[in-house]
Input
Amino acid sequence: MAGSSPAMTDLESSRRSIRRLAISIGKRLAMAMTVDLPALERTESVESPAPAGRLRRYARPALGLLLPVGLALIWEFIVWRGWSNGRLLPPPTRVFATIVELGRSGELTRHIAATLSRMAAGFGLGVIAGTLLGAISGYWALARRLLDPTVQALRAIPSLAWVPLFILWLGIFETSKVALIAAGVFFPVYLGVMGAILSVDRKIVEVGRIFRLSGPAMIRRILLPAVLPAYVVALRVGLGLGWMFVVAAELMGASEGLGYLLLDGQQLGKPAHILAAIVIFAILGKATDWLIEIASAPFLRWQDAFRQIGAT
Amino acid sequence: MLILDRIGKIYPNGVNALERFSAEIRLGEIVAVIGGSGCGKSTLLRAIAGLDRATSGSVTLDDVTISAPHAEIGVIFQEPRLLPWLSVADNIGFGLSDLPAEVRREKVARALARVGLTDKADAWPRELSGGQAQRVAIARALVPQPEVLLLDEPFSALDAFTRRDLQDHLLDLWADTRPTLVLVTHDVDEAVVLADRVLVMRPRPGRLFAEITINLARPRDRNSPLFANFKRRVLTALDRSLDRSEPDRDAKSTTGEAMWW
Output
């Protein structure tokens, strides 16, 4: 009896979280992928066979899909009837066909791999630097007084202003691109970590002192869990900025990558290529964001419980 | 034996929160420290806990001077201060991390049963009511079996009914291992229900004003005339403590020292 009930609640909560995930996927697709007709249709068909009781829970996000799907269908219809040639704004099917074609030739994989590897390197470096310096500044008041004003001043510089300097210093190849992405990721992570550490409840730290936790134990058992929710938010903000900067870096001269695909499409007058790259950016951006969300979910279940109570 | 020897605390901003506070507290004794706000009673408790250093005087527990949190001293705060990311059971076992998992689980299970929250073992702290959360805090402090338990207005945030319930429950738990309890409160009723001895403090600077021994058998009847009598004595002492012309309990030793100077 006592053994089975936690398992039950576990199952229940995971089912709930899957359901919630499905809803949020729907919402996000509606917001982010107004041009991605195939993806939209897929989510709709998943939702439609749901039982009547759940229909209301899915009805609202589906409502959000109505406008983009409708517009896409109308545009598809207009081009299909020949009222417009759809040269500057290709219809959804043509964008989809472009993606398939690029994918078949292997070109798409190459571009995605190039972008993803830059992103991974830049994001990784930015997160490591931001976490380390943020933790030092948050934990140690002297370091904060020494370091923080400089970091804040650097933050005030629009990061794209670094581009010429990075290219001069690091060349026009991978290094300067990775550095730009890392710079973009660094600041939100640094600020998030520092702010999170500074706002750890002193009263809870005192509990750790009462139980005579050593320095490392205090960090592991009190500070890390207390900081984690804000850290996940900081990572997600950093990731968003990272995607922004990977595009900027690739627009400024690259021989491969999704940003190159954008530029190529512009120069060769192929809007379907541009839209295809944008759609893939949207998918990759959301997918990586979900990865962070899903990876952190088991550690943030205690917050989840609160949200569920608040919702009912 | 817990010995408080002329403890004084002057905060960096110059506030003289506590002055020359002395008391000897026997093992297993329940002592209530009562006084108006700003009389330094929380300062006193934090000094005993080793959370804040006193600026003068010393705290010794069985001949060991306390200057940092000590394994034999547990603390219960006004708020439960549970760790929100740990389940109720893990919160209770927080201070037992040195023990093997099996022993820890068994102790936690026993503590949960003792505070009547076995069914909440896997709940998150946020899912508990105020009274339940404070029970968990009590269990967490008691489960390592400290020799001394310090309580800083532990029930003041609870409603009257829950407060009475937890006061009785605390006595019940105390009877298990009979630790020394030092309880800071501003509730006269609470002091007289729980304590063997009530220390009345006066504010600015915080000083010991009077000491009242409550020699009533437990369980105590809150409605008995004797109980009312003790309450009146504590209240009278509290009133008199605000009268500046009344001397401190330690007045004699103070003048003695002044002469020595």
Residues 160-177 of chain B form the longest helix (18 residues). The interface with chain A takes residues 49, 51, 68-71, 74-75, 77, 79, 81, 83-86, 94-95, 97, 122, 124-127 of chain B (CB under 8 Å). The domain at 2-86+147-260 of chain B is CATH 3.40.50.300 (Rossmann fold). The first strand of chain B starts at residue 2 and ends at 10.
